[in-house]
Amino acid sequence: MKTIDWYIIRKFLGTFFLSIVLTMSIAIVFDLTEKLDNFYENQVPLREIVVDYYFNFIPYFLDMFSQLFIFISVIFFTSKMATNSEVIAIFAAGVSYERFLRPYLITATFLFAVSFALGGWVIPHSSRQMLAFTDKYIERFTRENARNVQMVVGEGTVLYIESFQIRTKLGYRASLEHFEGKTLSERITADRIRHIDGYNWRLENFTKRNFNGMRESLVQGQVLDTTIMILPEEMFITAEQAQQMTNPELYDYIQKQRERGAGNVKAFETEWYTRFAGPLGAFIMTLLGVTLSSKKVRGGMGKNLGIGVTLTAAYILFSTVSTTFSVSGVMSPFMSVWLPNFIFLIIAFVLYLRVRR
């Protein structure tokens, strides 16, 4: 690490954090203006507003726009260095372009680690707290009742419950179907289904049908205790809650759903791959920013900033749109998440080769 390395790292991090502070300040002012009436009407304590809401508000938006901040920061201070002929002086001293990139990549590695930790552990925890605050004081959205629940709870086993109450752990009009391949082998219907503990459930006023070719056997009874591999809380998990799971929780949930044979995990798989592809965008945005702004051009910093904002907007838009491909089944979750990174990495590499020459 030479003096020039520390000089570039300080400029990179200084510009990055300054842009974050300015942007977050504006975002907080707008959000506070929008929600001020709710805070006043519900007599929300100041400590809860600051600690429970805005302390958790900042990491979420920081991670969401980190690639934009990185790109703009690199474009800004590198263009300024090029305009002041500092970059020319560095190359005139015999520094190669690869050596010039070293402090940029070191800083990008640090920002990658921060973004990965935020997305995998900090933001899921802060999202739960922020949503709990929103549910309590601003807008009630948590559910105590689930309707028309249909889930794969095991290999070839499908559970359906017309309505379920999480508070009483009691459901109404349930059916449990077992398939051998594509053939229905057993079907149990019950007027009520009650959660006992763990994976133990009780079917009340049930009818059990077994199918063997053209033959059918029928059993009816009042109570049938059985094991169903599902917990009541899992009936209330939606795709939006993937962001509230830490990396270990998200991985365990995906594995559990795959073992059950469930096919409704694409949204969770997309979130899982995003938590790796998103932070790695720090390297792509850094390389793009350096290759675009390290050469002194006519138009100065304004031209480079314009190109930078356009490319960053295209990257964010492409990343957002491509994730919908996995939900619709056009692409696998892996390809839909990583495709923008692959394309912009190629663009960055082509620019790198051109500037290096």
Architecture overview:
With 357 residues, the chain is α+β, with helices and mostly antiparallel strands. The protein folds into two domains: 3-139 and 267-356, no CATH class; 156-229, SH3 type barrels, CATH 2.30.30. It is built from nine helices and six strands, in the order αααααββββββαααα. The chain has helices at 3-41, 46-64, 66-83, 86-92, 97-137, 247-260, 266-293, 300-328, 333-356, and strands at residues 145-154, 157-165, 170-180, 183-197, 200-212, 215-227. It has a six-stranded antiparallel β-sheet. Helix 7 runs parallel beside helix 9 (333-356). It is elongated. It starts with a helix and ends with a helix. The mean pLDDT is 90.
Mean pLDDT: 90
- Termini Cα gap: 25 Å
* Helix proportion range: 55-70%
Beta-strand percentage range: 15-25%
Biggest sheet strand order reads 1-2-3-4-5-6
Q: Largest sheet, described in full?
A: 6 strands, antiparallel
Instruction: Tell me how many strands there are.
Output: 6
Q: Structural class, please?
A: alpha+beta
Tell me the overall shape.
Answer: elongated
Annotation field: number of helices: 9
Whole-number tally of structural domains: 2
